[in-house]
């Protein structure tokens, strides 16, 4: 998308607004499938939590992708988007067995990461094939909040508890049809990924009726010009070779599965906001925008970096600005960042806003959540309306006081 395209979106739908470029999504999907083209059976499950708009889910369905879901609501969103339930994997954490049973009724693949739930489920539903999420005890990821495979993580069944898993499987007669792991997000070192994969292979060899191995995801994308990213092509070459060797020793061609989210949608997204005020203080020049961490919390939550471009005047001389929001709390998007000279009314574009941005938005300060727009085949398509005051009060009930 060009700067002119982005400005066109703000002129048509106002600001703030999220916009996603379908071409980037499609190219990222093809890049990953191409990297693993020598795997006989490859399955991608798009991680719905990254960006759950129905139009985005329909786009992935058209590409042939399945879905990775973590709540029963995400499962239902996937089905509403037309995705075959058999192509949806349900990997919740800390939910009751009732939610798992509801997912079974919807016909999706169940993934369990708790010994007690595994035993309860196997006892009640021994004929329902189940995938097991292991914790490989590998620390990986760009932030402690997104590193989920280490020893202190709440996710997965420890590899040291495999004897317990095998006992449960034997006692209940249940079928384990998949083994799953996810070590974290923003993994740069493919050596760490390959090391964790060996742990997954060791666990998988203990089960006789597997259909697939799910390696999660966590591929790092670039956040600014010249930034480093996961070399998925090198990973594809090395993991494909090792996976095919494992299948040969296992005696069966298994499916290799991944659950990419950020890798597929992060770079496709832009968050566009208007500058309300330029404020000079004794030490800083603030660019104050018509948004806040209620719309884009990642910089405050994860310390994430989002390149910010003044698309209204991209060729002006650069100055240092701190970009902040309108929330009644500190909501700083960037400190002392070089941006072309900003005037009131300019539109700032935040890059890498496709993943975990709108999906983490809120109504804090009773502000409306922004609209979402899909830029597809050269046109802007509104895929979620801007909220109104009616949306804020819709579910509130008044009582006589």
Automatic annotation (TrEMBL):
Residues 24-266 form the Orn/DAP/Arg decarboxylase 2 N-terminal domain. Pyridoxal 5'-phosphate binds at residues 218, 356. Pfam families: Orn_Arg_deC_N, Orn_DAP_Arg_deC. Its EC number is 4.1.1.20. Specifically catalyzes the decarboxylation of meso-diaminopimelate (meso-DAP) to L-lysine. It is an enzyme of class 4 (lyase). The gene is lysA. The keyword Lyase applies. Belongs to the Orn/Lys/Arg decarboxylase class-II family. LysA subfamily. Keywords: Amino-acid biosynthesis, Decarboxylase, Lyase, Lysine biosynthesis, Pyridoxal phosphate. This is Diaminopimelate decarboxylase. Gene3D superfamilies: Alanine racemase, Lyase, Ornithine Decarboxylase, Chain A, domain 1. Signal peptide: none annotated. One of its GO terms (molecular function) is diaminopimelate decarboxylase activity. Its cofactor is pyridoxal 5'-phosphate. InterPro entries: Ala_racemase/Decarboxylase_C, DAP_deCOOHase_LysA, De-COase2_C, De-COase2_N, Orn/DAP/Arg_de-COase, PLP-binding_barrel. SUPFAM superfamilies: Alanine racemase C-terminal domain-like (SSF50621), PLP-binding barrel (SSF51419). Coiled coil: none annotated. It comes from the Bacteria. NCBIfam families: lysA.
């Amino acid at each position: 998308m060009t700067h002119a395209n982005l400005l066109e979106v703000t002129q048509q739908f106002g600001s703030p607004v999220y916009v996603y470029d379908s071409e980037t999504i499609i190219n990222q999907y093809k890049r990953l499938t191409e990297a693993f083209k020598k795997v006989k059976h490859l399955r991608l499950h798009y991680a719905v939590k990254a960006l759950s708009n129905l139009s985005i889910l329909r786009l992935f369905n058209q590409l042939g992708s399945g879905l990775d879901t973590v709540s029963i609501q995400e499962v239902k969103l996937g089905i509403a988007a037309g995705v075959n339930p058999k192509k949806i994997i349900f990997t919740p954490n800390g939910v009751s067995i009732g939610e798992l049973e509801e997912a079974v009724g919807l016909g999706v693949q169940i993934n369990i990461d708790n010994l007690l739930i595994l035993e309860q489920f196997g006892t009640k539903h021994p004929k329902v094939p189940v995938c097991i999420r292991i914790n490989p005890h590998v620390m990986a990821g760009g932030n402690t909040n997104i590193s989920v495979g280490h020893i202190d993580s709440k996710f997965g069944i420890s590899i040291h508890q495999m004897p317990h898993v095998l006992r449960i499987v034997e006692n209940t007669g249940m079928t384990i049809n998949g083994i799953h792991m996810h070590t974290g997000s923003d993994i740069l070192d493919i050596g760490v990924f390959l090391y964790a994969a060996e742990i997954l292979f060791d666990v998988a060899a203990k089960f006789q009726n597997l259909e697939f191995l799910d390696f999660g995801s966590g591929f790092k994308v670039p956040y600014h010009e010249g930034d480093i990213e996961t070399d998925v092509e090198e990973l594809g070459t090395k993991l494909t070779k090792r996976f095919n060797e494992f299948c040969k020793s296992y005696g069966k061609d298994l499916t290799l599965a991944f659950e990419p989210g950020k890798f597929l949608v992060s770079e496709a997204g832009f968050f566009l906001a208007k500058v309300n005020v330029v404020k000079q203080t004794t030490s800083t020049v603030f660019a104050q925008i018509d948004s806040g961490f209620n719309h884009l919390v990642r910089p405050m939550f994860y310390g994430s970096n989002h390149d910010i471009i003044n698309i209204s005047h991209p060729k002006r001389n650069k100055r240092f600005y701190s970009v902040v929001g309108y929330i009644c709390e500190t909501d700083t998007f960037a400190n002392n960042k070089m941006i072309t000279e900003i005037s009131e009314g300019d539109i700032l574009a935040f890059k890498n806003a496709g993943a975990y941005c709108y999906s983490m938005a809120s109504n804090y300060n009773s502000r409306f959540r922004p609209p979402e727009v899909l830029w597809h085949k050269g046109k802007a398509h509104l895929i979620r309306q801007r909220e109104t005051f009616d949306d804020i009060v819709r579910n509130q009930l008044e009582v006589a006081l």
